[in-house]
Design goal:
By secondary structure, the protein is mostly helical. 74% of the residues lie in helices and 0% in strands. It is globular and about 65 Å long.
């Protein structure tokens, strides 16, 4: 009986893990299956883009430091002191996500500012705004992050994989980002405007510590120097790890190691698929001259980070692919994993209406998806 009970517990834990880390589980399964078709050999070592893994790891550490000292909330609180009505309040909450996501990733922006919005709107008796504001925050984070290589994992990967220059990357993504900002402004202006008084507790702009914020800012610039190829990634990795170890080693626990492992699994899967001529030729034919649409459609099913990694191995048209996987973050709830973060943040509020949230989320995302898809195909 004890053996059966232990086995049942193991199965339940495995099931819960697969449910929670669905993308990692899928990537691990694909990587494992591909090994049967291409047995491990010396070529496997060349599959993984170690520079991307190192950059993601270091950026996660630095951004965790920013959150630890309260830098983002201090910035938000400082801006919110000037909000006199719900339109100004919504504008600040949404565009905090839009602009911050350009530098600290869409995930971190939402992890920081969605609970902040829930607290502030609840304290201000503006519960009616919870759903539209959080949905717009999610869209803003997903779209603002597409401007820079460090804005989201798929950008960082494609930027590195295709050896794009920083100037070319910014000039390519700027028009679509500007259109996104205009659409967000229109969406905010449509919402009903009312006077509002912010909660004093929400407006605390205290940053903990004195030296650590400066250290994290310097480390962020070290990461940026690696992004623009001013220093090599082993040096960046060594500097960041050593300083974080002595500054606050608890930050190592805040790294999303599952995301890094997901990248590694997809690298193995794609590397093996490229070595199977029939499969490689088929995928090439399917996405040829359809990179943007392939990125948008595939993102709806497996999310945009895996879609970017998967499709990148079979095309050289990085411009269309960048547009596809970034716009592809709109649409379904799983199109961007950052959207799951927002949904969980909203679901934790006492007045959560999950069905209504999904409906509003879907409507807003569909409208933005259609508008930006049309703009992208015009630009391209």
């Amino acid at each position: 009986m004890k053996v059966c009970s232990d086995l049942y517990n193991v199965i339940c834990k495995a099931g819960n893990f697969i449910k929670k880390e669905a993308v990692l589980s899928a990537s691990a399964m694909l990587a494992t299956i591909s090994v049967f078709f291409v047995p491990p050999d010396a070529a496997y070592a060349g599959y993984i883009d170690y520079r991307v893994i190192a950059l993601l790891f270091c950026l996660m550490l630095v951004v965790a430091g920013f959150r630890q000292v309260g830098l983002f909330k201090a910035l938000g609180s400082m801006l919110l002191k000037h909000a006199k009505n719900t339109r100004q309040l919504t504008f600040i909450l949404v565009f905090l996500c839009f602009f911050c996501s350009m530098f600290v990733t869409n995930d971190v922006s939402l992890i920081t500012f969605v609970p902040f919005a829930v607290m502030l709107l609840s304290a201000s008796n503006q519960n009616r705004l919870l759903i539209p504001v959080i949905v717009l925050q999610t869209i803003a984070a997903n779209l603002g992050s597409m401007l820079t290589p460090v804005g989201n994992p798929q950008n960082l990967y494609l930027y590195s994989a295709f050896h794009i220059s920083i100037s070319e990357f910014l000039s390519l993504m700027l028009p679509l980002t500007a259109i996104s900002a205009i659409l967000l402004i229109i969406a905010i202006l449509i919402l009903k405007n009312e006077p509002v008084t912010a909660s004093p507790a929400a407006l605390d702009n205290h940053i903990s510590g004195h030296l650590r914020p400066a250290i994290y800012i310097l480390l962020f610039f070290v990461c940026l120097m690696c992004v623009i190829h001013m220093i090599e990634y082993p040096l960046m990795l060594a500097i960041t790890v050593i300083i974080i170890f002595f500054c606050d080693r608890s930050l190592f626990k805040r790294v999303d190691y599952f995301l890094l492992l997901t990248f590694a699994c997809f690298f193995i899967f794609i590397g093996n698929m490229e070595r199977i001529p029939a499969v490689s030729e088929l995928i090439n034919r399917l996405i040829l001259n359809r990179e943007a649409m392939s990125g948008i459609v595939l993102s709806q099913v497996i999310s945009n980070v895996p879609a970017a990694i998967l499709l990148s191995g079979f095309t050289d048209n990085f411009k269309a692919l960048l547009y596809g996987v970034n716009i592809g973050g709109l649409g379904t709830l799983i199109a961007s994993l950052a959207s799951i973060i927002s949904y969980r943040g909203y679901s934790s509020s006492q007045c959560a209406k999950k069905g209504k949230y999904i409906l509003v989320f879907s409507i807003y995302n569909l409208i933005f998806l259609i508008c930006l898809s049309i703009a992208a195909f015009i630009i391209l």
